[in-house]
Amino acid sequence: MRVGLAEEAATVGGGGSRTLEARICVPDGARAGVVVCHTHPLYGGDMDSGVVVRAVEACAGLHLATLRFNFRGVGGSSGAHDEGRGEQDDARAALAELARRLPAGAAVALAGYSFGAAVAAAVAQASALAGLALIAPPLRIMPLASTPAVRGPVLIVVGSDDQYCPPSALEPLRSALPAATVTVIDGADHFFLGALDRLGAAVGGWAAALPG
Q1: Strand, coil or helix: what is 26?
Q2: Kind and range of the H or E element at 90?
Q3: Could you give the CA distance from residue 8 to residue 121 in angstroms, rounded to a whole number?
Q4: 11 and 19 in contact (C-beta within 8 Å)?
Q5: Can you give the pLDDT at residue 2?
Q6: What is the pTM of this model?
Q7: Across the chain, which distance is largest between two alpha carbons, in Å?
Q8: 136: phi > 0 → left, psi -120 to 50 → alpha, else beta; which?
Q9: Three-state DSSP class for 184?
Q10: CB of 111 within 8 A of CB of 37?
């Protein structure tokens, strides 16, 4: 089910004088929160991507807090693209901002789409995440450097016709994350054209399992 997003514009401190443009929603009584990272900045990726918005809608429909943001150098975010390195700091800053706005100890999870999935997986190595959702991780061109370590539910969702992450490329990830839920959306490509509702259902199922 799609919901209207009651987001507000926000600014996330990215370290030093750098700031990140964001949209945030923290409903009264939210039990947990999810940060969503967008796809590759150099190929038009930003927080207004249909996939990012659909993921946020799915979480908001479960009364979870959400934060989507633009990586450095995108939209109103200062700085410049850093090939996925500095972007990990951006994601950590977004997680810290959402945690700051939630009650102490509330669960915070991370989701990422394409390039954002690669960033999210890297951040998961050293962050205490309540869950991780990797949406169309571009494994054909950006293999994950290491296996994410997450204590909560993990979702991997791709389209059966994904140009950058064919389902066959998921086998090493399936082996490394045996507890992950792996969803292949039949007929969908890397951009989930015509399949956003099915993507939202997959993300919603993952978000419903988050602790809190």
Answers
A1: coil
A2: helix 86-101
A3: 27
A4: yes
A5: 53
A6: 0.96
A7: 44
A8: left
A9: strand
A10: yes
Beta strands 154-159 and 132-135: pairing type? parallel
Phi, psi of 21 (to 5 degrees): -75, 135
In angstroms and rounded to an integer, the radius of gyration of the C-alpha atoms of the chain is 15
Reduced to 3 states, what is the DSSP secondary structure of residue 33? strand
Structure token pair of residue 55: 């993921």
Sign of the torsion formed by the C-alpha atoms of 184, 187, 188 and 194: negative
Mean pLDDT of the chain: 94
Contact of 150 with 173, CB cutoff 8 Å:
no
Helix/strand/coil (H, E, C) string of 41-62? HHHCCCCCCHHHHHHHHHHHCC
Residue 182 in contact with residue 174, Cβ under 8 Å?
yes
Q: What are phi and psi of 32, to 5 degrees?
A: -165, 175
Amino acid at 68: R
pLDDT digits (tens, 9 = 90+) for 95-113: 999 999 999 989 999 999 9
Q: Which two tokens stand for residue 100?
A: 């700051």
**What SS3 state is found at 66?**
strand
| Residue burial 158-195, b: 16+ Cβ < 10 Å; e: rest | bbeebebbbeebbeebeeebeebebbbbeebbbbbeeb
Q: Which residues pair with 35 in a beta bridge?
A: 67, 110
